[in-house]
Amino acid sequence: MTTHGTIVLIAVGLTLLVWILDLVRRDRLYVGYGIILLVAIIGSLLLLVVPPLLGWMTRLVGALFPASALTLLALCFIVFMLVYILAQVTVVSNRLALLVQELAIRQAEESPRPAPGTHEPQPLEGRNGVDS
Amino acid sequence: MTEPTLRVLVAIPAYNEAGSIRTVVERVRASLPDFDLLVVNDGSRDATGQILTQLGVVTTTHLCNLGYGRAIQTALTYAQRCDYDVLITLDADGQHAPEQIKTLYTENLRGGWDVLIGSRYVESHDYSQSPLGRRIGMRIFSWLVRLVGRRHIYDTTSGLKIIRRSVFEPLTRWHFIDFHAEAIVYLLRLGYLVGEYPITVAERRHGQSMYSLLSHVTYPLKTLLILLIGIVEAELTRRSRR
After folding, report:
1. Which of B19, B69, B76, B106 is the most exposed place for a label (fewest CB within 10 A)?
2. B147 lies in which domain range?
3. Please, what sign has the CA dihedral across residues A130, A132, B3, B4?
4. A113 to chain B: nearest residue by CA?
5. What local confidence, expressed as pLDDT, does residue B135 receive?
6. How far is it, in rounded angstroms, from Cα B139 to Cα B134?
7. C-alpha angle B88/B91/B93, rounded to 5°?
């Protein structure tokens, strides 16, 4: 990589670092996600400023050129992040669904008791032997 | 033949069923006066909620649409918490005749089934009335249930089920898509008794099916994946019980 290219990438990396730290500070990004991104950015910067490290990484992943090794690593990171984010979305979605269900059930439990003889479900409170 | 000691809840999951929900509720009330009734309004955007309020039915209302599986899960949780012995689920589109439920329920008591499914195909084994894609899907899932559950269930997608208290906990512990083949296999692998009893089903007159064009592709794939993972999950549950 040319010196110019290295400087540009370092500048981009540092900008991202500052942005991520600011997002964490303002509670706009969960600290756990911030750590993952910071580790990835610092790792990339190290590969850029320490050429022997990039050479070693290229041999490790079996690539012919350093650029190919970096592309492969970047793709792996993106896929990892995609799976991780989808898993987090699922967790949040499940929590939301549970909340909606709980609210619905409590609403039904607290609804007025139907007139005798209608055989409708009754609120838990007041039912023999059952505590809410 | 109804055992007076058993507390029975009829649950109807409903999503945008304003055209049919009134009739279904009235028919359930008329034909099953001994049973309690609960409607799970799954975030309907039409007049379903207002109609249910007018009818004075006890309703669990999801603030947003969570899907059929979650609606059934809400009914199961409600039944579990309110100490019901039996939960009967039926569709809100009016396809199931509530008048047939008493017979199904009696058969459930007689046979000691943990889950008894109201089946369109158990007698005739004839899927020809269904569209081709659905027919293929039902045959495949029926065959899969037989293969991994060692029991032939002809109608894996029926919404009319008699569910005993014994399976409330396993059915709420794990996640299912629509409580179809994946739930049947899971219960069979855990050693519960799942059976079928013949029913007749009417044509849908109001509303739309919950299955969109896209879901005809995604539904079998999702069900297949959960079915396979369910086998592993059931095995792990069995081992943890030992």
Report:
1. B106
2. 8-241
3. positive
4. B58
5. 84
6. 9
7. 150
Spell out which residues of chain A touch residue B35, defining contact as CB-CB under 8 Å.
119
Q: Which tokens is B51 given?
A: 């109609």
- ipTM tops 0.85: no
Task: Determine, for residues B56 and A120 on separate chains, whether the beta-carbon distance falls below 8 Å.
Answer: yes
Tell me whether residue B108 is in a domain.
Answer: yes
Q: Which residue of A has its CA nearest to B60?
A: A104
Domain assignment of residue B207, yes or no:
yes
Domain contains B129: yes
Domains held by chain B: number? 1
Q: Does a structural domain hold residue B154?
A: yes
Tokens of B110: 């007689």
CATH at B39: 3.90.550.10
Q: DSSP letter at B36?
A: E
Residue A116 has pLDDT above 50, yes or no: no
Whole-angstrom distance, CA of residue B189 vs CA of residue B72:
21
Nearest to A121 among B61, B63, B82 (CB): B82
B136 close contact with A: CB closer than 8 A: no
A17-31, A115-129, B135-149: lowest mean pLDDT where? A115-129
Tell whether B36 is within 8 A of chain A (Cβ): yes
- Is A130–B73 a contact, with Cβ atoms under 8 angstroms apart? no
Tell me if A111 sits within 8 A of A123, measured CB to CB: yes
Chain B residue numbers touching A110 (CB-CB < 8 A): none
Nearest to B117 by CA among B180, B30, B25, B175: B180
Using the beta-carbon criterion (under 8 Å), do B64 and A100 form an inter-chain contact?
Answer: yes
Higher pLDDT, A131 or A87: A87
pLDDT in tens, A60-94: 999 999 889 989 999 999 999 999 999 999 999 99
Residues of A in contact with B66 (CB under 8 A): 97, 100-101
DSSP letters for B196-225: EEE--BPPP-SS--S--TTHHHHHHHHHHH
| pTM, two decimal places | 0.82
